[in-house]
Design a protein that fits this description.
265 residues, single chain, 30% helix, nine-stranded mixed beta sheet, alpha/beta
Length: 265
């Protein structure tokens, strides 16, 4: 389906939870957050319904995000449901990799096609500082397991000024050795006006944006850098999706109503 600015919207990012097992300095506030209650989070059956309707509108790529999606119980059940929907060509996951080693095989069997893994440094102590307690070894094991399972893999590095800028070359060499892709992400604030002249790979330019987002509480978000939101009406899911696509702004500005961990990037 085309939006009002003739962009083909064929990509739906789905946050399955706002909870995470890390507390990264650029995502989670130091004072902590109040997470949503279980009853406020979409059920897998509801997500499947939304994906089925979105596929009829031309959505062919799905990405599952969080929070951290791998902390969701039986996530492979949802993946298998989505993988079986006609029209879905790509089924992807973005993860911090902490739990990936024990889950990669199951995810592959369920029908997941590619994984983006967040990794901002190869230095264990710096990794603990950035993630507020994470273990780099867990992520490295997860990467190796995902490589062995044959996943298409992209490593996401958030470039933090004065913290890890000096590791870009090392991260690129690491990815080259593993035969995986590198994606450099500018550190930005949702509450500041979006800059379309970022130096690195992400965020994308508004002109090329082809995505909408489904948040874990059942809200559709047409633009990451906007406060525009629509709650899914389960009596007419397709109309809700159409409304969100047509409300997508030509250019994102800022988002003041949500935090990054709620949206999933």
């Amino acid at each position: 389906m085309l939006d009002k600015f003739n962009r083909e919207i064929n990509y739906l990012r789905i946050s399955v939870t706002d909870k995470c097992n890390l507390r990264c300095i650029y995502c989670m506030p130091e004072e902590g957050v109040q997470f949503k209650q279980h009853q406020d989070i979409l059920r897998y059956e509801q997500i499947e319904q939304i994906v089925r309707e979105s596929s009829l509108l031309g959505i062919n790529k799905i990405r599952l995000t969080g929070g951290e999606p791998l902390i969701k119980k039986d996530l492979e059940i949802l993946i298998e449901k989505i993988a079986g929907i006609q029209g879905i060509k790509e089924l992807c996951l973005t993860t911090n990799g902490i739990m990936l080693a024990q889950k990669a095989k199951t995810l592959k069997q369920a029908g997941l096609t590619s994984i983006n893994i967040s990794l901002d440094t190869l230095q264990p102590e710096k990794y603990r500082d950035i993630t507020r307690g994470g273990n780099l070894t867990d992520v490295l094991r997860g990467i190796d397991k995902a490589v062995n399972e044959g996943f298409k893999i992209k490593l996401n590095m958030v470039v933090l000024k004065g913290i890890n800028e000096d590791e870009i070359a090392a991260i690129r060499r690491f990815c080259l050795d593993k035969n995986i892709s590198t994606q450099l992400i500018n550190h930005f604030s949702l509450k500041s006006n979006k800059n379309d002249e970022y130096f690195f790979d992400r965020p994308p330019k508004c002109l090329n944006c082809n995505r909408i987002r489904l948040l874990s509480d059942g809200v559709l978000k047409p633009c990451l850098h906007s406060d525009i939101e629509y709650r899914v009406d389960f009596t007419d899911i397709r109309k809700s999706l159409e409304k969100a696509i047509l409300a997508k702004p030509e250019r994102g500005l800022s988002c003041t109503a949500r935090n990054m961990f709620e949206i999933g990037g």
